[in-house]
Specification:
The protein is of the alpha/beta class and about 325 residues long. The protein is built from 12 helices and 14 strands. The strands form 4 sheets. It has a 7-stranded parallel β-sheet with strand order 3-2-1-4-5-7-11, sandwiched between helices. The protein has a 3-stranded mixed β-sheet with strand order 8-10-12. A two-stranded parallel sheet has the order 6-14. It is globular and about 55 Å long.
Length: about 325
């Protein structure tokens, strides 16, 4: 059985991916890593946990050695809005952290999954049906680190044969752990506030279209890509994947089907609006469909039903 390490395991994706990987590969075969001293009880009680800061290569190597890790899901990262506020931190975590992971993977022969993002595109990228291979000149620190990360992963595959794979994730919507400091976070907050207060003040303008995906599809995409036949992978490290292209009004309208009194107001955050305006409206994910069979299960309607049901119980 594969031995797996997850960095950033207490984060929005990590907290759920770790539990899925433990279900699939066995609890003791998946070591959760994070900088947080207090991960969730569920995570802590279901398998091994190690405190690891990915900017410290020696600690990463020690954990890989201790657990004889074969696959690293490297999720520790700084998201777009925080990266704009703290560019040096974003560079250190997103670039130096990834470099350390790749170096350890090279030394110990591990495969590596790294998420890229819609943030790897910029204002000169075609915004509609954004092709798999296109212009990538992002104007945010987050985007700079994501493009550099894609290239670094390609380099480690070509130069050293490290089995690197990755996805350009859209905004991920989930109900377990809140995202921290992203531009697409409104699409998570809106559901929490709909349940709590039946109203939401959105920091992005109506008409701001962005790709989104529900967490179960995001997790499935990561696992399916890592299990895919490598001989079919042309675009190893940066597959466009998406489930829906939506603006705030579309999500609000979908919520109103369940909570008719739901009200939406706007108070635009210029920093996050500028980031969102530089990202695609909708990506073409045909390469992922062709090369490893990507298909989503949750559209806006199905996701909204599930989000409101789960959060309705959780926030009671
Ligand atoms: C963010 O908004 O920063 C992330 C992303 C789309 O990469 N959710």
């Amino acid at each position: 059985m594969k031995k797996i390490m997850v960095t950033g395991s207490a984060g929005q994706i990590g907290s759920e991916l770790t539990m899925l990987l433990r279900e699939l590969y066995g609890n003791t075969n998946v070591v959760a890593c994070g900088r947080k001293t207090k991960p969730s009880e569920k995570l802590l009680n279901s398998g091994p946990f190690e405190i690891v800061d990915c900017t410290e290569g020696g600690k990463l190597a020690a954990v890989v050695k201790k657990y004889r890790v074969d696959v690293i899901y490297h999720l520790a990262a700084i998201l777009s809005a925080v990266a704009e506020a703290k560019p040096a931190l974003a560079w250190n975590v997103n670039i130096n952290g990834l470099y350390n992971v790749l170096e350890v993977a090279r030394e110990y022969n591990c495969a590596v999954f790294t998420p890229s993002s819609i943030g790897a595109f910029g204002p000169s990228t075609p915004a509609d049906h954004t092709p798999q291979d296109t212009i990538q000149r992002p104007n945010t620190m987050y985007g700079v680190t994501k493009v550099a990360g894609e290239l670094l992963c390609d380099y480690y595959f070509k130069r050293f044969g490290v089995d690197t794979r990755g996805l350009r994730y859209p905004g991920i919507i989930s109900n377990e752990t809140l995202p921290g400091g992203g531009t697409t976070d409104y699409a998570v907050d809106i559901y929490y506030e709909a349940i709590r207060n039946k109203k939401y003040t959105c920091f992005l303008k109506a008409g701001t279209f962005l790709d989104m995906m529900y967490m179960p599809d995001a997790l499935k995409a990561a696992v399916d890509l890592m299990e895919a036949d490598p001989s079919r992978l042309v675009h190893r490290n940066a597959f466009n994947v998406t489930s829906m292209s939506v603006d705030p009004e579309m999500i609000a309208a979908e919520i109103r089907k369940h909570i008719p009194e739901f009200k939406m107001e706007y108070d635009i955050d210029p920093v996050r609006q500028a980031i969102a305006d530089s990202w695609p409206n909708n990506m073409d994910d045909s390469a992922a469909r062709k090369e490893w069979g990507w298909a989503f299960e949750y559209d806006l309607t199905r996701m909204t039903e599930d989000m409101l049901q789960v959060l309705g119980k959780k926030l009671k």
